[in-house]
Every structure is written in structure tokens, then in C-alpha cells.
Amino acid sequence: MRRTARLLAGTALAVAAAAPAHAAGSGRLDVYPSTVAPGGQVSVNTAACGDSGAAAGDAGAVGAGTFTLAPSAHEGEAIGQFRVPPSAQPGTYEIVARCAEGDRQVTGDLVVALSAAYEQVQPRGSVKTGVGGGLGPDPVQTAAGVAALAVAAAGGTWLLHRRARGDGI
Q1: What's the pTM value of the predicted model, to 2 decimals?
Q2: CA 128 to chain centre
Q3: What is the pLDDT of residues 3-55, one digit of tens each?
Q4: How many beta carbons lie within 10 A of that of residue 141, not counting itself?
Q5: Residue 136: what pLDDT?
Q6: Exposed/middle/buried for 80, CB within 10 Å: 0-12, 13-18, 19+?
Q7: Average pLDDT in the 43-70 region?
Q8: 138 CB contacts (<8 Å, ≥6 apart)?
Q9: Which of 75, 92, 73 is nearest to 84 (CA)?
Q10: pLDDT, tens digit, 9 for 90 and up, residues 110-125
Q11: Pairing between strand 91-99 and 78-83?
Q12: 8 Å CB contact between 46 and 55
């Protein structure tokens, strides 16, 4: 009983100690979208700078220079934007934000991809699930499926009749 009480008390103390650290901010810089084509607009936000929420952003790694993060409508969060230069090369770049108060620094990753690789591809055709599909049945596949079912039914009936007559299987 004492061992359980100690374990629960230790867990409660660990949770209580971690709560202020979690409430003080996420400790990371969120980059949206995380993958962008050259020339695209990027938004960043963080809760790491506390109530003042102001920060100076640096996207110099990708060639976008500095930008400002200002307090947003969400309590304790700072948000900023920058544009990726059209001349940016594909790759992963580190974006940095330094809080105005204190010496806290947070980072996030931005992936620059070629526009052809970045665009979403819409699926086409039917789903290959057997008979039929998302856009309608294929007559050849339908005929093959019906034939396979007919052969299986005939074979099963024949085996059941042999068993019922006592011929053995």
C-alpha cells in the first residue's frame, strides 16, 4: 500500500513540475505550410515567447531575410509571415525566431520543393477491389468473377452430394 502511495505521489509531483514548463510555451516554431514551392507564402507561430509574444524571425537560410512575429489573437502566441524567394533551391531550411524578452530561441524546419513535386495529385480511375469499382464495373472482371463463383458453387455441391451418398471424399 505504501509503495503504491509513493508511486502516485511521485507521479503527481512530476506532473506538477512539468505543467508550468508546458504552459510557458511549446518551445518550437510551427511552420505552415511545412513544404512550399519557391515564391510561396509561409506563416510561422510560436507560444515559446510567453505573454509578450513578440519575436524576431530569421529566414535567411532560405534567402527570405528577417521578419517580425507579433502577438496574435491566441493568448501567448506570436505569428509572423515571410515569402520564400522564387530563386530558392529545393531542400530543408531551418527557420529561427528569437523572443524579444529573454534569450529564448526556437527553430522550425521548412522544406522547399519544386512546384511539380509540391502540387497535389488527384486520384483517377476505379478502386481495384474485385468486382466493380468506384466508377463502375468492368465487364471482363465481372464475367471472370461470376465464372469463378459458379465453378466454386458447382464443386462444393458435387462434394456435398458425394459425402451424403457415402462415396467418401
Answers
A1: 0.52
A2: 26
A3: 544 444 444 444 344 333 333 445 788 999 889 988 889 999 888 887 777 88
A4: 15
A5: 59
A6: buried
A7: 86
A8: 126, 132
A9: 92
A10: 999 886 444 556 677 7
A11: unpaired
A12: yes
In degrees, rounded to 5, the angle at the alpha carbon of residue 32 between the alpha carbons of residues 86 and 84 is: 15
Residue keyed to cell 511552420: 31
* Three cell numbers written together for 112: 522547399
Q: Tell me what percent of the residues of the chain surpass a pLDDT of 70.
A: 70
DSSP string, 82-142: EE--TTPPSEEEEEEEEESSSS-EEEEEEEE--HHHHS-----S---SSSS-TT---HHHH
Grid coordinates in use for 72?
496574435
Dmax (CA) for the chain in angstroms is 92
Check residue 146 and report its DSSP letter: H
Cell of 87: 530563386
